[in-house]
Write a structure and sequence with these properties.
Residues 21-405 form the Major facilitator superfamily (MFS) profile domain. The chain has 411 residues and is mainly alpha-helical. The protein contains 15 helices and no strands. The two termini are 18 Å apart.
């Protein structure tokens, strides 16, 4: 049975408007490190394929390696940050990211690239976990919705903008130079963490001997709502990354776009992410997050199914682009609500909860998205994978989350 929302005072309420803006900017930069690490080199896929003399599937596996590393890294960083605080894991992991980025840039073959991409993903994981855990340390209820909507904007926008930036970098750099650029960005994030991130998990709040890692994970996995929304988030990311991993070959090789036109396509799609994340955050003031997810998951399924149908009807490039824009917008619409429902009931283990959510998002995406390459890149295969993940998300909402049982958020 739903409970009445109550007024609760959270530490973030003491922050001034200016301080909140600073937090949004810095935490947004931390969150963006992961998607930039994963997606900045997407426009270079065909170049890497030719330069190293490898197959499309082999290039896509470097993307898989990164997402798996990102997922594993979050599982390590999350519980660690609950135990020792947020800053130390962030500094150590981001340093690893910088070194691994340089390793990729200097790697002699695809095998070493894959190894360093796993390490790069593990290093980038800290930004996402610490950012979400920090917001949960400071906020709850409706303020949590508003802050997470800003981070969700970055979470959704960064994977879309990264290939745009990557396509422009390729005008002046080779594909190895893109990874030197990532190393430089990692250094900036590291310096921001050192000089601007304040510890939001005080020593007295860190659980050491009285609560083990197993107990923290147990509290999360006994939460039916958390499990359900984590599946929704994982399936949404998997559908999005199926598109991201296939798009370089689909739009550049099959439809003949150059890297800059390909980047422009991503820029247009980024508008959908902005509309989706910010609209849902405002709507959540009057509508429960679970009902927003009901709408977004339905649109994701319908729009991805439309890609399949229109490709079979030989509708051409527009038959992919139009439903794709609605797909991306709907995914953005649901992102903040997934994070809010997953973290709302887990303030005492926010780092662990954020790590599980992120690991499922990127781990499932890393496992599912290469399917498009294995069956041959086409709009039909891409749309079919996207529709399948969307269908699982719909089932998870109605049979695991069960929207009518979700409590209302505090004000």
């Amino acid at each position: 049975m739903a409970t009445r929302p109550t007024a609760v005072v959270h530490p973030g309420a003491l922050l001034t408007r200016r301080q909140r803006i600073v937090y949004i900017l810095i935490l947004g930069a931390l969150v963006a490190l992961g998607p930039f690490t994963i997606d900045l080199y997407l426009p270079a896929f065909p170049v890497i394929e030719g330069d190293l003399g490898i197959s499309q599937a082999a290039v896509q596996l470097t993307l898989t390696a990164t997402t798996i590393g990102f997922g594993v890294g979050q599982l390590l960083v999350g519980p660690w940050s609950d135990r020792v605080g947020r800053r130390l894991p962030l500094i150590v992991a981001t340093s690893l990211h910088v070194l691994a980025s340089i390793g990729v840039a200097l790697a002699p073959d695809i095998g070493w690239i894959a190894v360093f991409r796993v390490l790069q993903g593990m290093g980038a994981a800290a930004g996402a976990v610490v950012a979400m855990a920090t917001v949960r340390d400071l906020f709850g209820g409706q303020p949590l919705v508003r802050m997470l909507s800003r981070l969700a904007l970055v979470t959704g926008l960064a994977p879309i903008l990264a290939p745009v930036i990557g396509s422009q970098l390729l005008l002046v750099l080779d594909w190895r130079g893109v990874f030197f650029f990532l190393a430089a960005y990692g250094v900036l994030v590291l310096l921001s963490a050192i000089f601007f991130i304040v510890e939001t998990r005080p020593k007295e709040s860190r659980e050491t001997s009285d609560r083990t890692m197993a107990q923290r994970y147990g509290a999360i996995f006994r939460d039916r709502i958390f499990i359900g929304v984590a599946v929704i988030g994982g399936m949404s990311f998997s559908g999005l990354f199926a598109y991201l991993s296939a798009s370089p070959f689909l739009f550049q090789d099959l439809y003949g776009l150059n890297p800059q036109q390909y980047g422009l396509l991503f820029a247009v799609n980024s508008v959908g992410i902005v509309i989706g994340t910010q609209t849902s955050a405002r709507l959540a003031r009057i509508v429960g997050p679970q009902w927003i997810l009901a709408f977004s998951t339905a649109v994701v399924f319908v729009s991805s199914s439309a890609i399949v149908v229109l490709d079979l009807a030989d509708a051409g490039l527009l038959g992919v682009l139009v439903p794709l824009w609605f797909f991306i917008t709907a995914v953005g619409f649901g992102f903040p609500m997934v994070q809010v429902l997953a973290l709302a009931g887990h303030g005492s283990e926010a780092g662990t909860a954020a790590s599980v959510l992120g690991a499922l998002n990127f781990g499932l995406a890393g496992l599912i998205s290469p399917i498009v390459g294995l069956f041959g890149v086409s709009a039909f295969v891409m749309g079919l994978v996207m529709a399948s993940t969307a269908f699982v998300a719909v089932l998870s909402l109605w049979f695991i989350v069960q929207p009518k049982t979700v409590p209302e958020l505090s004000r």
